[in-house]
Amino acid sequence: MPKTVTQSKAMKKPIKHVPFLLLLSFLPSILKISTAIDIINTTQILRDGDTLVSSGGRFELGFFSPGNSNNRYVGIWYQKIPNSTAVWVANREIPVRSSSGILKVMEPGILVVLNDTNNIIWSSNTSRVARTPVLQLLDTGNLVLREANDDRPDNFLWQSFDYLSDTSLPDMSIGWNFVTGVESYLSSWKTNDDPARGDFTFWLDPTGYPQQVIKRGTTTLYRIGPWNGLAFSGQTNSAQDMNFRYVFFMKKDKAYHRLEAIDNSIISRIILTQAGTVQRWTWVDRIHDWIPYVNFPADNCDTYKLCGAYGSCNIANTPACVCLDKFEPKDPEGWSRSDWTNGCNRRTPLNCLKEQKNTLTFQLLSAKLHAYIIHVSGSGTEAHNKDYELPMFRASTILKATNNFSVNKKLGQGGYGPVYKGTLEDGQDVAVKRLSKTSMQGLDEFKNEVICIAKLQHRNLVKLLGCCIEGEEKMLIYEYMPNKSLDLILFDQTRSALLDWPKRLQIVNGVARGLLYIHQDSRMRIIHRDLKASNILLDTDMNPKISDFGIARSFGGNETEDKTSKVVGTYGYMAPEYAVHGRFSQKSDVFSFGVLVLEIVISKRNSGFSHGDQHLNLLGHAWTLYKEERSLELVDAYLRETANLFEVLRLIHVGLLCVQQCPDDRPSIASVVAMLGNDAALPQANQPGFFAGRDVSIGKSINSCSSNEITITQLEAR
Fold first, then answer.
1. Which long-range contacts (CB under 8 A, 24 or more apart) does 308-317 make?
2. Is 301 in contact with 315 (CB distance < 8 Å)?
3. CB-based contacts of 505, cutoff 8 Å, min separation 6
4. How far apart (Å, rounded) are the C-alpha atoms in residues 490 and 499?
């Protein structure tokens, strides 16, 4: 039976008008809702007991307690149906433990749920900024954040229809947006009393002929059969429905299916039950109850891989599974026990030279990679073609490894495109960088990644395992780093405590050794040009690995520097000579390293840093304290109590030497490694680059290293 919502007494009460004097006490801060409406703005809040009702009166939003639970959740249910059924839940993983919860819209356009201690326990995944955000419950059951004067469906800031619970409503899409990487799918409740994510998911598999599948964790249990142009071919137990129609849409940027209402007066919903079945229910007024219309799986033949390879299933047969013509059971004993999962083999093996075929395939793929590199580099030379030979992965392998680029597998987003976690068939975890079709630098970055690090081997460089070039797909496959990137830990007030002083020293030393390798010890001299905390990945033991060589430059012979008219990099890490004049060298990498060192000591970003009334960035603040012999004030109390203070002061000093304004004043990375490895006296540090920090202006330039008026030209931040 469908899950139901138990409404509290507070939920059933009409909203009372707030007395005028009491209302004045709330002004000018926040106004409480005083009438039942379908929309609120940033000056209003929705408390437990208040509700929003859609304009047509079909849906209602508020706090509710599911089943026999006393926990409170923000949800949407049918307003006029007795024992209303929840169709969407916001804070399904973290309930409010009392009736003191609040739902509100915060500037610049974020929806939040607050608990009784006024802490945010849930928020909308909103990245766009709105001037006048409002929250509205539509009569479709869709909860939307939008600009107050813009109700276009294609311009919503956020909508609940993109973040489903266990229920699909008419006009609600299940599928993929390949541009944003967002996947909309159903996930079951844990129990009738707990709407947290259960064991089962129902989603669209867009590979090959698209089909609907039910999974338990990562294991596919059932599939409904591929789309045949009219319906999903496995829907054998559904009769012709004159009130609804299935719609399937697939293009290069998105793929989805949904149930569209022909007669909007009919109330229908699809749910994924806690037992892992998909059911469609229709409300019948004359009997005041829901009746089932479709149930899936309909029988055992819907079970995924029930009969194994080259097996066929027919529920009318005994046994249900048989081998295809000219095939026989691979496991006759298991077959006799009705265990058909091993499938069937050919009675007579094909006369194929399998090994020779595989070798030919590999040669063709390698040739394709070489041809591609020559194409994007504009050169028919690379005497070094053998240096770029990499294992080639098929797109189907990567799709399977990343769960079809599931949003749950997404690790992050860069200038190249999105990065996903994947698991290969042998169990190895990998990170997959997928070239975005809208990336302006993607082709160049792809070439750079292959040329710069395909054959580099160092414990402090991330390892490139292979690539995929198929159709429009271009992907790079790396070893997976379980602790992700340094910035996610270092700049998080809570997680930064995971980095004690020995670990921070370990990270600094590891990054320095990695830079020394690419600057001096590798087969090519490489300047990274985008060294920053988010490009330092951490393995299980917090060992650092330099990543993202997309805009790196390689040099041969005695070359050590170059100049460009197109400056690309990240504000806050770029050396002044690079940002202003486009000149980059090993010393510009040293500058970025120095910024990183100071950030690691202080746990704060250089970009956006402020301290009191001083108009200084992090570098300027650190240098000011250094001149006054007050460098320890930079360090968090947590580190001051546990760290070796001599090491702390020395590391700050080394960082300031690396960020000096003039490139010639900065030490080489080889000297930095030596400084980190001994206690010898250090030279005095001169004024850092971008000392003016947040007062930097655009469009001017400098001619002297001694000037304080540092400015930026042609900056293209990544």
1. 308/340, 308/341, 308/342, 308/343, 308/344, 309/343, 309/344, 310/343, 310/344, 310/345, 310/346, 311/340, 311/343, 311/344
2. yes
3. 647, 651
4. 7
Longest alpha-carbon distance in the chain: 91
Q: Taking CA 375 as the corner, what is the angle to CA 371 and CA 377, rounded to the nearest 5 degrees?
A: 120
**Confidence at residue 87, expressed as pLDDT on a 0 to 100 scale:** 95
HSE (side-chain half, CA atoms, 13 Å) at 538: 20
Q: Which of 205, 302, 530, 548 is catalytic?
A: 530
Please tell me the class of the 354-479 domain: alpha beta
- For residue 44, what are the β-bridge partners? 31
- Residue 62 to residues 79, 136, 144, 161, 242: CA-CA distances in angstroms? 11, 12, 14, 17, 33
Contact 111, 85 (CB under 8 A): no
Q: Give CA 267 to chain center in angstroms.
A: 35
Q: What are phi and psi of 488, to 5 degrees?
A: -70, -25
* Identity of the residue numbered 676: L
Residue 336, pLDDT score: 86
- The one-character DSSP state at 289 is E
Cβ atoms of 344 and 323 closer than 8 Å:
yes
Residue 216 in contact with residue 276, Cβ under 8 Å?
A: yes
Q: Is 500 a catalytic residue?
A: no
Who's near 51: CB < 8 A, 6+ residues apart?
Answer: 11, 15, 36, 60, 61, 62
Whole-angstrom distance, CA of residue 157 vs CA of residue 605: 28
Please report which helix (H) or strand (E) contains residue 258, including its range. strand 254-261
In the DSSP assignment, the letter for residue 402 is T
pLDDT of residue 629: 87
Domain boundaries along the sequence of the chain:
1-159, 164-304, 305-346, 354-479, 486-717
Q: From 373, 432, 365, select the one nearest 397 (Cα to Cα).
A: 432
Residue 576 near residue 537, CB atoms below 8 Å: no
Q: Is residue 375 scored above 60 in pLDDT? A: no
Q: Can you tell me the distance from the alpha carbon of 88 to that of 469, in angstroms, rounded to the nearest whole number?
A: 40
Give the integer Cα–Cα distance in Å for 156 and 151. 7
CB 393 within 8 A of CB 466: yes
For the stretch 441-498, pLDDT in tens is: 566 677 777 777 777 789 999 998 988 888 778 889 999 999 999 999 999 988 888 8
Q: CA 210, CA 212: separation in Å to the nearest integer?
A: 7
Q: Is the pLDDT of residue 8 over 60?
A: no
Other C-beta atoms lying within 10 Å of the C-beta of residue 676: 17
Is the bond leading into 329 cis (omega within 30 degrees of zero)?
no
Residues 200/214, Cβ–Cβ less than 8 Å: yes
Binned at pLDDT 50, 70 and 90, residue 284 comes out as confident
Instruction: With H, G, I as helix, E, B as strand and everything else as coil, classify residue 16.
Output: coil
The letter for the amino acid at 375 is H
Q: What is the pLDDT of residues 492-522, one digit of tens each?
A: 988 888 899 999 999 999 999 999 999 988 8
Q: 296: which strand partners? A: 278
Classify domain 1-159 at the CATH superfamily level.
Answer: Bulb-type lectin domain (2.90.10.10)
pLDDT of 650 over the 80 cut:
yes
Distance of CA 46 to the CA centre of its chain: 30
Rounded Cα distance between 285 and 268, Å, is: 12
Cis upstream peptide for 502 (omega within 30°): no
pLDDT at 76 over 70: yes
Q: Which among 506, 694, 531 is positioned nearest to 617, based on CA atoms?
A: 694
Q: What is the CATH number of domain 486-717?
A: 1.10.510.10
Nearest to 121 by CA among 65, 71, 76, 78: 71
